[in-house]
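Re: that backbone. Tokens:
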């Protein structure tokens, strides 16, 4: 999905932060095309890419460690504005003659920023605001030519700049939603300092994606893995527009779906795809493969493998296909593996880390660089109904990763019924569209209860509801007490074997949205 070289480009060098793609997301949100590259980019690469600005991301390493990711000296001699974030700030300080040391007090999570001198990068930022920090090292002494701009309670040098060399640095993460003035800081860098015009739009993304699909597919036939979720539905609609007549959308019922999912997908997507849709019943196959498996990584890999085998079998039965299209998004990639920098792996997504090495089908992944909200916008541009575009995210492995422990038919029935009650009540109360994602989780514990004047020893269901803009960070949803009480009562009364309901109030990070 790369634009032509004449398009204005923000270059982001990935030093391994889990938030690296958020920088690109925020830039695109502001109308600036952003491209992520590994940290070992050279001056020759820079001349070829011709960026108008460069961002050095955060990262898990310490610049004090031997072999820590570094920066080619030519990058800082290219006369292109540079913004260092967290690790990027420490790297700039070290390479330009300042001093970095390990702090006795690690700063992680929310912090209070006090602006002492706005300069250019903090121009218009409120004197006090909240920022998101995640670091153990701090800059102790700035390089010559830099001006200190701000501090936090535990960090004296939280922001600095050297306008003469057009180098700017912050010790916190402006790309994260928890940094209340982050958008102002990024606007300062992109527009006031770099001079971007803001000419990037999702309409252009759609056009680029259509051309990219046509170039890759040519005259070949494509199977599209349709799960019924937003991502795969948008991929199916995109392929239908790009290469009509060459696509068969395959919806696999693996027995781990939401209640009523099969009928809903066939009704919504059958019309959108002009009935180029095939439903495959593979419930017995998946449940047999998962029998006795408790480890979440193993579950994901088994499900990824079985999906591919079903698609390969279907391709043979339907006259052959050379390609498999799936709705992989960037969060799937960044949490499963690195995107070019030394990013830490969070978990293997079934459609990334769970794919078998010997799969026969070539992958088509036109949404691989996008976030969920961008995909929703693409779906709207493609004419998909709001009922599809506005659905909450649902993991490809389905309820297997919402059953903490072995996957059985009984466990699937329990968690799917509890989940259906939760979602139905959210919709009835007008709360469904106010949360990013909501679901039920079946816990591998039993607790004592009293039902009908008798002692019980039954299962626990956890409810999870979060607010987010992109899925990379999330906060727990403050649902009304009366609402939660009603949902809890219904689950305990209507779901056999459940006697206790709890509500998850964890943020991401440090937790993830899903439990497995």
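Recovered sequence:
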């Amino acid at each position: 999905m790369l634009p032509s070289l004449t398009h204005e480009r923000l270059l982001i060098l990935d030093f391994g932060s889990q938030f690296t793609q958020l920088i690109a997301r925020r830039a695109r949100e502001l109308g600036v095309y952003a491209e992520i590259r590994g940290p070992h980019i050279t001056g020759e690469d820079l001349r070829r890419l011709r960026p108008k600005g460069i961002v050095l991301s955060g990262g898990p390493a310490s610049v004090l460690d031997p072999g820590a990711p570094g920066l080619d000296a030519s990058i800082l001699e290219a006369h292109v504005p540079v913004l260092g974030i967290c690790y990027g700030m420490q790297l700039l300080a070290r390479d330009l003659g300042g001093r970095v040391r390990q702090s006795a007090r690690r700063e992680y999570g929310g912090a209070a920023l006090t602006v002492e001198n706005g300069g250019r990068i903090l121009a218009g930022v409120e004197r006090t605001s909240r920022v998101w920090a995640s670091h153990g090292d701090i800059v102790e002494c700035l390089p010559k030519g830099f001006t200190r701009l701000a501090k936090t309670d535990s960090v004296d040098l939280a922001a600095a700049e050297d306008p003469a060399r057009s180098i700017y640095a912050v010790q916190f993460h402006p790309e994260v939603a928890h940094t209340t003035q982050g958008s102002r800081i990024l606007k300062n860098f992109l527009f006031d300092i770099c001079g971007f015009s803001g000419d990037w739009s999702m309409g252009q993304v759609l056009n680029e994606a259509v051309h990219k699909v046509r170039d890759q597919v040519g005259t070949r036939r494509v199977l599209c893995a349709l799960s019924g979720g937003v991502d795969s539905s948008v991929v199916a609609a995109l392929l239908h527009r790009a290469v009509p007549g060459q696509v068969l959308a395959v919806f696999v019922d693996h027995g781990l779906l939401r209640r009523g999912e099969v009928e809903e997908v066939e009704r919504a997507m059958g019309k959108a795809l002009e009935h180029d849709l095939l439903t495959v019943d593979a419930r017995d196959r998946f449940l047999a493969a998962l029998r006795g498996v408790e480890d979440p990584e193993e579950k994901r890999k088994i499900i990824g493998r079985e999906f591919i085998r079903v698609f390969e079998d279907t391709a043979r039965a339907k006259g052959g296909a050379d390609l498999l299209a799936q709705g992989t998004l960037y969060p799937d990639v960044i949490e499963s593996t690195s995107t070019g920098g030394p990013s830490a792996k969070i978990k293997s997504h079934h459609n990334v880390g769970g794919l078998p090495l010997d799969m026969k089908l070539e992958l088509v992944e036109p949404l691989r660089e996008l976030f969920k909200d961008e995909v929703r916008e693409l779906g709207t541009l493609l004419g998909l109904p709001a009922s599809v575009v506005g659905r909450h995210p649902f993991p490809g492995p389905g309820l297997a990763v919402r059953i903490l422990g072995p996957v059985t038919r009984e466990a699937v029935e329990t968690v799917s019924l509890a989940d259906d009650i939760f979602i139905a009540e959210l919709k009835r109360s007008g709360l469904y569209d106010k949360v990013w994602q909501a679901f039920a989780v079946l816990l591998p514990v039993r607790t004592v209860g009293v039902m009908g004047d008798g002692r019980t020893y039954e299962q626990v269901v956890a409810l999870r509801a979060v607010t987010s803009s992109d899925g990379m960070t999330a906060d727990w949803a403050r649902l009304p007490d009366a609402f939660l009480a009603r949902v809890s009562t219904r689950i305990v009364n209507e779901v056999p074997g459940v006697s206790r309901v709890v509500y998850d109030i964890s943020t991401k990070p440090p937790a993830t949205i899903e439990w497995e």
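The first strand starts at residue 10 and ends at 13. The chain has three domains: 10-193, 202-389, 408-503.
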